Prior knowledge:
The chain is 37% helix and 23% strand. The chain has helices spanning 11-26, 50-66, 77-81, 83-94, 110-115, 125-138, 175-179, 187-199, 222-232, 250-256, 274-280, 286-299, 318-331, 358-381, and strands at 2-7, 30-32, 40-45, 71-76, 97-100, 158-161, 163-164, 183-184, 204-208, 216-217, 220-221, 237-240, 264-270, 304-311, 335-340, 387-395, 401-405, 410-414, 426-433, 438-445. Helix 8 (187-199) runs parallel beside helix 9. The longest helix has 24 residues, at 358-381. The radius of gyration is 23 Å and the shape is globular.
Amino acid sequence: MTVAFYTLGCKLNQSETESIAASFQHNGFSVVGHSQLADIYIINTCTVTSKSDQKARRIVRLLDTAHPNAMIILTGCYAEVEQEKLRELFETKSFIAVIPQSRKSLLMELPQQVAGHADFSQLSRLEKYNLFQQIKKNLQQGNVFALNNSDYLFHSRAFLKIQDGCDGRCAYCRVPLARGKARSLEDTAIVERVQLLQQQGFREIVLTGVNITAYQHADVDFIGLLRKLLAVTRGVRYRVSSLEPEKITSRLAEVLSHERICPHFHIPVQSGSDSILQRMRRRYTVERLVEGTKLLRSIKPDAFFAADVIVGFPGETDEDFKATRKLLSQLEFSKLHVFPFSSRPGTDAVNLGGHIPEKTVTDRVKDLVQWSEKRKDEYLNQFAGRTTEVILEKEVNKKLWVGTSGESIRCRVDNIPGTAARKRALIKATISGVKEPCNGVFLSEG
């Protein structure tokens, strides 16, 4: 039997897809691409923007038309906040199962149940749907941290979920509605999972969550957790996902300065205007954002700095946008993730006045995207002739591999000896060409 996945959204969603896919594979399923013929298709959705909602509906309709006998399951954040609408749209008409984010972990148990039905592939979609409804009654409601695993089908770097949910109430954000309150995995469980991943041969572990800086279990906070992980492992590097500006302190910077923390930081800036940050209900000022970013740059001067920016938030004036652009230039971000404001149902921003004309938003987005592309080229240029550490991910030929550096730069590394030419290997390479993917020459094993 075969299963395929289509994932929208953040690294956390990608991590959860990996866990579900691994469960299917361990129970005898072949995991194929979503463009291939499969018995089951699982769409893991995001609801951060209206575009992500549209993409989810589009892929469901495409799969529904192309594979009328396949079981299709819609899950994730969009399936949580709009479950009744989606059930009316797809489940009652096309027998497409809708599993909300809060019950996503039960999909970990599904493959074992389905694997016992030898004739599953021959069933019609209605028969598969009815079977799933029967199976679902016997499935346990797992916890959100059941969606972690020790092997990965789609990535050479391990994604470890340490936190979920958010207690913040940013005016534009729908994530708390989809994922609930902040909660953290026990630090002892995280240590065990990290040690298992190291035994499996992973040399990079990406720590993921909705807000990892909010990690807190008993008396262990995010800083304490990082110290524990660095103490119990050797030869493994860690990559942190988004760091909330108000949480960037000298204590955090001290532990992030460790050589095994990747020189790659992602900061959700959102705006460079204090008035807009206040309307967004962000928990920091521009001054605090500048202090935090400069603090990180002081510990890793050559790190790759990425930023999220929302353009066209209600009330954003030309002066507000100029302030954002000025701040991004001042802090020398290496890349921007630019999002035009998307009014999301259930958020307070829906009721804010001062909506920005679409053309103005489009022009501002284009301006920042162009700036980002130029800035990334400038960042890459400084690596010519320098050495960096790369995780090997995909073989091009026996001596040429593609991988990712600690700075999150895609690299093509040549002249790799047979002893080091393997997936997940950590190697050192000298950068010879700076057009991404950068060209590099093998130097030594890391």
